[in-house]
Amino acid sequence: MYAPYCKRKLLFIVQQFAVMIFLCGMYIVKNIITADEIVQFVVCSLAFWDAAYIAYRNIRANHVLARFSSLLSLLGWQFLLSLFHIQGCTVLLPVCLCQSFCFLQSFVFQSSAYKGQKQIQIVCNSACILSVISFLISDRAFAITYQIQYLLSLAAMVLICVVHHRRVAYFLRSQRKAFFLSLIFVVIPFAAYIAVFLHKSMYVANMGSCFPVMLTFFSVHNIVFQYHPAQERFFILKKKYAAILFLSGLSLLVFVVGLFEVQLMALFVLIHGCFLLALLLDLFLYLQVSQQSDGCYVPSYIYALERLKREELLKKEFANYLHDDILQDLLSIKNLLRKSDQPDMKELLYDTLNQLNASIRSQMEEYHPMMIGSLPFIDALQSLLDTLTQHSTVSAILDCDKSVFLVDPYNTLIYRIIHELTVNALKHSNATKIWVLLTLEHDVITLKVSDNGIGFDMSACKQAKHRGLASIQEQVSFLEGSMSIETVTGVGTKILITMPMRGESSYESLVN
User: Fold this and answer.
1) Between 491 and 60, whose confidence is greater?
2) Alpha helix (H) ranges present in 29-138?
3) Is residue 119 part of a domain?
4) In the prediction, which pLDDT does 341 show?
5) pLDDT computed for residue 299 by the predictor
6) Is the pLDDT assigned to residue 157 strictly greater than 70?
7) In what order do the strands lie in the sheet with 482-488?
8) Per the domain annotation, does 135 fall within a domain?
9) How many domains does the chain have?
10) Shortest CA distance to 265 belongs to which of 487, 23, 508, 512?
11) Burial letters for 388-416: b for 16+ Cβ neighbours within 10 Å, e otherwise?
12) What are residue 395's DSSP bridge partners?
């Protein structure tokens, strides 16, 4: 984990160095920034700095944060090149538009599949490729295709909001605090700036492109980092001392610039140089801490002990699975191979291999459900039930409205619970039908799994301390939910689970 993290930090150091080289080159050829372009350059610099900051925070190599930092870097270069009127920089516009749209829709849906996702992505990617190709033909062709791409992206966004209006509305409602901060720190300053320079067209030029970028990505930044997740720290100063140091250095820089009349371009190069030194300092501190035998970061004993327990439990479960299922099937196959010349043995060998394949796939889904990210959630649930019941005479019936959506981590939790309860019913209930009812009303999840089997003795189950049900009860309680079990011998079992779905903390789970 640490080597890729170090490489990412080094990559952003190289990028910052490249920005400084570019600025120096522009100064040499007398292509300098004027006073009316300061705001655009600040927005450009903030994109680079925020990308580096996100890379610093992304010690766990989270794909959402990695994609966010890469997109900010791409936008930063597009702003920088267009600010200095570099020929050919407009070719980055369709790429930035396409990547921004893909990231935002993935961010809102938390990297989960949704209805129409593949078709929309194909259209947007095709429009982007067409715009890039038309750039090589003529400026007029590029302008037309880029406008078409922009309209298609806007139409796709509107379509997503209409088709998945419940999920989009829930996202906006649950993250209203982050949007309120964006209103304070982006909308109000921009409105004040426009009001002051309203009659000076040169100062408000290109504000139409800066404003939506700042508003959108400042909101995403607030959502991602509003939880301040605990992580290894490699900076030796506390936040308040670092803030004092930063403000003191900035004040000294402004004083020196004003006193000695340093050119504006030189000031910007100095600021980026200071940021480059800060990145190098952070990298060196990181390497120093990671190479120390004792280390400066010591996790709490309780946390470490709990993590070891979870890892040992997982290893034990996997070892039992290998011994009780995989090894036994392999031994059976080995014995059957000796008699493979007989037709009956060939058929039995084929059935055993099919069972082994199904068992491995089922266990893979239990450890890490891949279908949640590749299929819409309801389709993933239906596929799960079909897979679990394909080698039995039991029919599993899913009752769930197509408009139901679950944010992270509730989607994974409910998926695992349905998997566990369905497997229990298949193994122990002798049922012919299993019903799974899932609803979402007023941000409350309701899951009911019932069967027409033989039921079980609740008192005997409590004495035996059934691990599966106890684990489900613990997870549901942790999310402030409740679980009730109704079972009648010879009639069947009903398990009812309810829990609130809190979107405010969903991105904490996604990022961490």
Assistant:
1) 491
2) 38-57, 63-83, 92-108, 117-135
3) no
4) 72
5) 45
6) yes
7) 395-400, 433-441, 444-451, 492-500, 482-488
8) no
9) 2
10) 23
11) bbeeeebebebebeeebbbbbbbbbbbbb
12) 433
